Amino acid sequence: MAAAFDSRFCLCGGALRRSKDIQNAIPDWRGSFTGCVRRRRSSSAKATSSSSASLPQPVRYAVLGAGFAGLSVAWHLLESNPKESPLVVDLYDEGGIGGGASGVAGGLIHPCSPKGKLLWRSAEFWRECLKLLSAAEQTLKRGTTSDGERMIWRRGIIRPATTMKNAEILKENASNSLSCFRREFLDRDAAQKLVPGLCVSFDSSIYMPHAVNIHAGRYLQALFSACKSMADDASSAGSGRMEVNLFKRSIESLHELQGNYNCVIICLGAKAAMLPELSGLLPLRLCRGIVTHMKLPDATSDVYEDGSPSILSDAWLAVQGPRSLVMGSTWDWGSRDYSSSVSPEEASRALDELLPKAASVYPAIERWAPVGASGGLRAMPPLTPLGSLPLLGCLDDIVGDKGQRRYWLVGGLGARGLLYHGLLGKLTSQAVMSQDEDILPSELTSWKRLLLKARG
Ligand SMILES: Cc1cc2nc3c(=O)[nH]c(=O)nc-3n(C[C@H](O)[C@H](O)[C@H](O)COP(=O)(O)OP(=O)(O)OC[C@H]3O[C@@H](n4cnc5c(N)ncnc54)[C@H](O)[C@@H]3O)c2cc1C
């Protein structure tokens, strides 16, 4: 059920025409944004003047951050909005869509640990992730994005064992099956049939045929288009006005939004802790990663075969085409460098680190040429007995807004944001709309109990 509308949070009254995508606009909150509302109101005044007074006011949500987490939350808020209930979802991102770690992710998705063990609630995470990928793909098919380039590669992923002990663990974990995600244990011959030239020193590897890799930037754009299409379709079908807007602007403090929204959902990745209200409170460690984009020179005739899987090892190769792949990733713990740009020195250090690791499992990578590098900051959550689990929850107790259920967090997606984002967005949107934090699994909110206990 949607949260009951509270007129104190209403920015704009009456019926407004659906706003266009305003990406790249940098509205001043009190000035141009209200100006923009006023303009929209007057241009649609003719059509709505007689009926506006009687129309219900929309529920308004602000989603801070347009990475995997923020876009998933936005999509699920729109998807589960009850028919006939007007809804406005405003996304804020200082860098635009994919401005943080999501935009540089290598794009590998599978529900297993580095040792091939299934992660906590892996089946649900996997299912919800595929659902969002499919929503984004549908939008591409509908032609609502101009970029016709490929977004998803269903080529599977292979992980060769790197030590004898590792080989035994992979074998044991491969036998623990999940019906929606098959894993196979392969010997050297079988592995090399899949990837000619693969080095399988310990005669064993785990193969995940259902695993996929995506082009993160294209996926995020397509998911935002899917949000817009959903809002457009609902509004034109007359089932209640839905609106999704993107504001390219930085939010420096939650105070900036106070009084304007029913709820604010914070999906700021590694920068969540930079909000003054959350400073020093989130149990996150930051870790910068660099990926190198590699191309096979035109003169080289052996291309990466179409059916061959991507490769996981101490360095991974996310294959995007016969002559194009992403090689990752470095782990610079404690870095606070959020920038996606990488200096020539940093790019060169990353290449020196990654290339030998990748070549130890796929020697042919030496023939590929680096054509670029990008970087991002991971927000790593604490390790628990169930693994490194993301952080969810209502933040009102923490930011001193007791009882309002207004501020929510989706954070600490670590190095697995793609796998996690679907289910986390779904659970959070349900909790936000029903104003019920108990919907969230206690394993994902336990960090709050520890924090509140420590604060007395
Ligand atoms: C090099 C690298 C490779 C990776 N590869 C993979 C992979 O292959 N598979 C995988 O599953 N995961 C991968 N990850 C991890 C994945 O990228 C993260 O888990 C995921 O991106 C986190 O998503 P998020 O939405 O929580 O944060 P982000 O993507 O960081 O999104 C936060 C957004 O908030 C915006 N923002 C921040 N502060 C403000 C502010 N004050 N005001 C307004 N906007 C703000 C930022 O611009 C950003 O767009 C990789 C990470 C790195 C660094």
CATH class of the largest domain: Alpha Beta
Question: Per the principal axes of the C-alpha atoms, what is the gross shape?
Answer: globular
- CATH fold field value of the largest domain: FAD/NAD(P)-binding domain
Number of helices: 11
Provide mean pLDDT, rounded.
87
Q: Approximately how much helix is present in the residues?
A: 25-40%
Strand order of the largest sheet: 9-2-1-10-20-19
Number of distinct beta strands? 20
Distance between the termini: 34 Å
Distinct small molecules bound, one entry per kind: flavin-adenine dinucleotide
Parts with pLDDT < 50 across at least 5 consecutive residues: 1-50, 144-148
Q: What is the gyration radius calculated from CA atoms?
A: 23 Å
CATH-level-2 architecture of the largest domain: 3-Layer(bba) Sandwich
* Assigned CATH superfamily of the largest domain: FAD/NAD(P)-binding domain
Number of domains: 2
How is the main sheet built? 6 strands, mixed
Residues in β-strands, percent: 15-25%
Q: Structural class per helix/strand content?
A: alpha/beta
InterPro entries: FAD-dep_OxRdtase, FAD/NAD-bd_sf
Pfam family, one: DAO
Protein name: FAD dependent oxidoreductase domain-containing protein
Domain FAD dependent oxidoreductase: 61-430
